[in-house]
Amino acid sequence: MRTVTEVSPVTERATDATGRSDADYHRPETVEAACRRLRDADGRARVVAGGQTLMPLVRQGLVDTDAFVDVSAIPALSGVAREDGRATVGATTTYAELAAHELSDRVAALGEACAVVADRQVRSLGTVGGAVAHGDPTFDLLAPLRALDAEVRLAAPDGRRRVPLDSFLVGHLRTDRREDELVTGVTVERPEPGRSGSAYERHAAVESGRATAGVAARVALADGAFETVRVACSAVADTPARAHAVEDKSVGEAATADVVAAASERVSEDIDPIDDEAGSATYKRRLAATLTERSLLAAVRRAGGSP
Length: 307
Ligand SMILES: Cc1cc2nc3c(=O)[nH]c(=O)nc-3n(C[C@H](O)[C@H](O)[C@H](O)COP(=O)(O)OP(=O)(O)OC[C@H]3O[C@@H](n4cnc5c(N)ncnc54)[C@H](O)[C@@H]3O)c2cc1C
Hints:
- This protein is an alpha+beta fold.
- It has two domains: 168 residues, Uridine Diphospho-n-acetylenolpyruvylglucosamine Reductase, domain 3; 107 residues, Enolase-like, domain 1.
- It has twelve helices and 14 strands.
- The protein has a five-stranded antiparallel beta sheet.
- Helix 10 packs antiparallel against helix 11.
- The longest helix has 22 residues.
- The two termini are 38 Å apart.
- Bound molecules: flavin-adenine dinucleotide.
- Flavin-adenine dinucleotide (FAD) binds next to strand 2, helix 6, helix 7 and strand 10.
- GO terms for molecular function: FAD binding; oxidoreductase activity.
- Keywords: FAD, Flavoprotein, Oxidoreductase.
- It holds the Pfam family CO_deh_flav_C.
- It comes from Halosimplex carlsbadense 2-9-1.
């Protein structure tokens, strides 16, 4: 069985016995001011957005910090902006806001992933930037973003950069983000309606509500055949895994149920699930194949196909 990287080890406990933190708290109103706070803290500050993941870790003494930089009051980080056939989702956009946005009508996989996250409270506070920056492969939104060839936008005191999500997520809970960088948003293509479609299918363990496995599919069809296929999976590898074997098997083929079924079986080649309380690795491989088939079929129908 693989070992996984644990969350940051405690070097010096900054919470008292009741879990209260004595760290400083900053609430800047610009990206530049937030980046300066991060740089000046020299790695000893934590960005906080919705706090849904970070604050429980702090209260449990699993994350130690000298200061919080709360980014929720930065107007430039909120909402969805359109430019040249692409859309940028600001980092502090919540799951609830993204699900209600027109982008989620056009890219169904995004809306479907947001809709299955926990409950209304978590969806109203948890943010897209928090999900991306934490890099947890069980988070539902990351697989659809990977299937959409998303780019992560980052800002630092010395400038801005964009990184493909594929290379931003470097391992379990590990990303390419530097400590003085802020995730400012993610950019995805806004596919033209008509011949493209997407879907997100997941199965969750009853006890935790978290994905045991999830699969996002995005397709574009031309003359009834697969022109573009992207498949990415939640919770079955160290990062949300791209299912290249499924993609290779289906591109250029007729978008039929038989082709989808055969291609979906190949998802096993690109995933590496572990045995845990949600199920055995063998079970998760079977589940991933079933979810791949379902999400591909739904995406094909939304693209105007009749599998
Ligand atoms: C009860 C419960 C159930 C849940 N169930 C699900 C589920 O079913 N599916 C699912 O996908 N998720 C689930 N989650 C997790 C949820 O998706 C995350 O907690 C949420 O997306 C994190 O966003 P946040 O804004 O709260 O991040 P925070 O908790 O504020 O931050 C998370 C991490 O990202 C960093 N960070 C945040 N924003 C930025 C930024 N802009 N730039 C740089 N770093 C940043 C923080 O420093 C921290 O390390 C659940 C959470 C809870 C509490």
